[in-house]
Amino acid sequence: MRKLELLAPAKNLELGKMAIDHGADAVYIGASRFGARESASNSIENIEKLVKYAHRYYAKVYVTENTVFYESELEQAQQLAVDVCNAGCDALIIQDMSLLEMDLPPIPLFASTQANSQTPEQVKFFENVGFERIILARELSLKQITEIAKNTTVDLEFFVHGSLCVSYSGQCYLSCALTGRSANRGCCAQPCRSAYDLMDKSGKIIAKNKHLLSLKDLNLSVHLDDLIKAGISSFKIEGRLKDASYVKNAVAYYRKRLDEFLNTNPDYEKSSSGSTALMFEPNVNLSFSRGFTNYFIDGNRKKTASLNTAKSIGEEIGKIKYTAQNYFVIDSEKFLQNGDGICFFDKYSNLCGTRINTIVGEKIFPVSMANLKPEIIIFRSYNQLFEKSMKQKTAFRKIKATIKFTSTEEKIILLATDEDKNSAILEISQIGDIAQNTELAMNSIIKNLSKTDGIFSFNVEICSSQILFYKISAINEWRRKIVELLLVEREKNYCRKQSKIVKNNIPLNKTNLDYTSNIANSLSVAFYKRHGVEKIQNAFEIENSAENKVLMFNKYCIRYELGLCKHGHNEDLFLLNNKQKLRVSFDCKKCEMKILKD
């Protein structure tokens, strides 16, 4: 059986638990330092609590230690890895190879997407040096993923939903160059979400005040089957800075999509235990999004930018048919509600927004009618009823289990077995009374033993021919005790994988590495030299100079996005923002784009 994993973001302990409740097979979370989202850090104590909660469902917890380390931080980075392992975590997600030179406890290592794994050769190298999983670059197509999977036996993880970086991950130095805040150090200032003017070499403005580097959000929900067949086993949702509503909705949505596949493909199974019952209908169109794209998954280049805004626009509702002094009417069967937030683009393509005061029939009365005109498309950026429902309990997750009840006049035996074949036995010396009504007595035993208790959903089997009468309080106490015993067995039998790095000298297929390899300390240098690299350049953050360096490497192309892609016309363009001027260079042979400081 091939196991499939739905991997969810956890900003903190609370959201990590929510992700598990809504169907995640694993969560990834940042520790106190060295995570690629600096503002999503957590204490070891809280991570340990999340581990305990997740492991009850045989779900896993991965910790992101995926920034580059400075020389002075190596000891702290090593200690954090030890603390994470001692907390019971299932893997470390990393990009700095210095960790492979350290004496770490036997915790599996995953190569972060910041390691920029794009080719079979890169993935095979990471497998050979000891990584248990590779998180592939988001820009890959199904064809490329399939080729990688054919040439490796290592676990492959891929992003399927959420915000997209316009640059290859780990290959963006723009924030560091412009603000000193490095993406590879977890504190990106997100200059890609800013608005820019685009100018050609003659000084002509081609586009003005557009979000030329801000991409739509990824949504590969209709490609899950294809990704599974291509070789992906872990499906990752982006969002360690997102709120509870987003996490609940996205995780529940992808849980349903994956379960649809599992229900018709018996050679596959989920990698954790239990079933999630939802108290709402998940719909990713109702959560944060800049509009959706499937990026390059089908191998075709398409329009992927959100040119007019970097903000969430939400769900498209319809087009305005006509307006009056204080209301408007739309041409859609989708309905708005009092208190909803709406947004739209005015005739200058500026994003505007307002709230709905009231609705009378087809007439929609907003707080403001400013810029609302016929033919304008309306988006719902805030769904009041949905967000209100998301603040309530929206799911519960239960593990199936059976209780076999056997009794005599002097003793009771309860045998509980869960869906993972863990078993616990409870024997009670208790004398029952002769039941005046055998059927009522049996129903009382079944009803009170099968009550939902904690994480279990019990089915009760009566294995005695003689049914005695017992007090309800006693039956409830037996159930609580057997639950405690079964939880102990689940915890004892949880299979936590251990993996120790064994150093080798398998050569990298390069002898020279430049700043894009993000090497910022002596142990990383030692790692690459051991693998045959002769010449090593310091990481961008060490040199702190943008001169003659590419600051962003992109598969996304501004020329294509604006309809300017013509064979042989690949002259440099320029991005202008306040006093900043960036040069955009195009490699039409590779169909890629690079950004440099002009």
List the helices and strands and how they pair.
Elements: E1 2-10, H1 13-21, E2 26-30, H2 44-56, E3 60-65, H3 74-86, E4 91-94, E5 109-111, H4 120-129, E6 133-135, H5 142-150, E7 155-162, H6 174-179, E8 196-199, E9 205-210, E10 217-219, H7 224-230, E11 234-237, H8 244-264, E12 268-270, E13 275-278, E14 292-293, E15 315-323, E16 328-330, E17 341-345, E18 351-360, E19 363-366, E20 377-382, H9 384-390, E21 395-407, E22 411-418, E23 423-429, E24 433-434, H10 438-449, E25 456-462, E26 468-469, H11 472-493, E27 512-513, H12 522-530, E28 535-536, H13 540-543, E29 550-554, H14 558-561, E30 573-577, E31 580-587, E32 592-597
Parallel strand pairs: 1-2, 1-11, 1-12, 2-3, 3-4, 4-5, 5-6, 6-7, 7-11, 10-14, 21-25, 27-28
Antiparallel strand pairs: 7-10, 8-9, 8-30, 13-21, 15-16, 15-20, 17-18, 17-20, 18-19, 21-22, 22-23, 24-26, 29-32, 30-31, 31-32
Helix pairs in contact: 1-2, 4-5, 5-7, 10-11
Describe the structure.
The protein is α/β, with parallel strands linked by helices and 598 residues long. Among the domains are: 2-170 and 220-278, Alpha-Beta Barrel (TIM Barrel); 313-390, Elongation Factor Tu (Ef-tu), domain 3; 398-493, no CATH class. The chain is built from 14 helices and 32 strands. The strands form six sheets. An eight-stranded parallel β-barrel has the order 1-2-3-4-5-6-7-11, surrounded by five helices. The chain has a six-stranded antiparallel β-sheet with strand order 9-8-30-31-32-29. It has a six-stranded antiparallel β-sheet with strand order 16-15-20-17-18-19, with no helix packed on it. Helix 1 (13-21) packs parallel to helix 2 and helix 10 packs parallel to helix 11.
